[in-house]
Automatic annotation (TrEMBL):
Coiled coil: none annotated. This is Oligosaccharide flippase family protein. Keywords: Cell membrane, Membrane, Transmembrane, Transmembrane helix. PANTHER family: O-ANTIGEN TRANSPORTER-RELATED, PST FAMILY PREDICTED COLANIC ACID TRANSPORTER. Pfam families: Polysacc_synt. Its main location: membrane. It is a multi-pass membrane protein. It comes from Hymenobacter sublimis. The keyword Ribosomal protein does not apply.
Amino acid sequence: MVLLNLLVKPGWVVLENVVQDRLGHEVFGTFTALLTLATIVAAVSDVGTTQLTTKRLAASPGFFTEFFPTLLPLRAGLGVGFLLATVGIGWVLGYRGHWLLLLAITAAGLLLTQYILFLRGVLQAHQRFNLDAVLSVLERLLLLGLVLALLPIGLSLDRYVAVRTVAVGFTFLLLVVLIRRFYGKVALRPRWQQARQVLLESLPLAFITLVYGLNERVDMLMLERLVSSKEASYYAAAYRWVDAVMMYLWTVLPLFFARFAHATGRTQEQQELLWFGQRVVTVPLLFVVGFGLFRGELLFFQFTHSSAQEVARMTQCLQLLFLNVLVHAFFAIYSTLLTSTDHEKPVSWLVTGSIVVNVGLNFVFMPRYGALAGAINTLLCAVVVSAGYLWLVPRRTGVQLPWAMLLRLMLTFSGLCAGWYALRRYAALPWWLEAGLAGLWLLVLVLGLGVVKVNELRQLRRRPPAV
């Protein structure tokens, strides 16, 4: 299922690059700003109920029948309220007329996506991870087909927004049918006392969602408002690949979130999960980041209408943002451990501080350096936040950090970069052969430095298949 995500998401990124190339940097840059605003507000509309529901259901299956008659209408009402808030914020920021209408339609689709994530939390909590993984790519798969169908007949921004809405609507209806089939029909009986309890318990998670959304996406909105739609478009083209790569994290980490929550109070079990998860999360992304650093320009082959200077600008943004991916590859799992074990508040304050720094730096440097400033500021803030995670985990959870493994992983990435640099400088190979040799070199480093031990692989081979 992870492989399915890895195949579909990059395919969608390639196609969305084609869309950006067809629509032009100015038009797509403005749409990117609208999409960013809608994404941030849509994420907040969840008010933390998705993570809370996953945690509660993993610990107590009876939570579904007791609370969902209240949760379902509560989430729907929140969605409508936040849709109106999105349009209001857009008007305050200066969007008018047709752009405001596109913002409303885009926000409605994203709010529906948030409702889908909420319902998928039920599947995750009941350990239906394969079905959840399929549903996580279904919307993108439908959108791939619809956009490909539009290309021969003519692509416009209005048509693009329309097919996005159709894809998310179909996915939502399918998920509702599956939930009813697995768990029966849920009678809607909202109770104010339950709603109040859920909101109070989920607010710390909601605050984390807000600050993470702002921290990751505010740069594109600020670029379009402070600099130009073209700079926002360059940043968006690079960030799109980052988002695709990060889908590996967002596919794997929810599995650990549910496992960490299930093991609450059992420190040794959580430590074993963390030490195992460190390798699962980090190792695959080392190669991806290396490719972005040394061959990032290849990811923009779709931009046939862009100048060499524009492609170079997008490549520079990509390289800086891929370093941000590297930081997340090492340290995002620590945030997952903290938030799954009721330590959301210190995490939220930590990320809030980084947002204040990021926004402040953006105001100072974006007008002069444009998209590059946004990428560098994001990287700096990610480093600061990750250092905070390392400080918080042993103090708040009692789980010991895998320092030796972290050192091995850092040495592995350093060795990979040194080998890739030598290939670029001295070998002059085709990119595909160069990347293949770099991948083999990474495998040698992983085994040679003890990141993965040979006896562990032998144990996996000997283990009988699950029935």
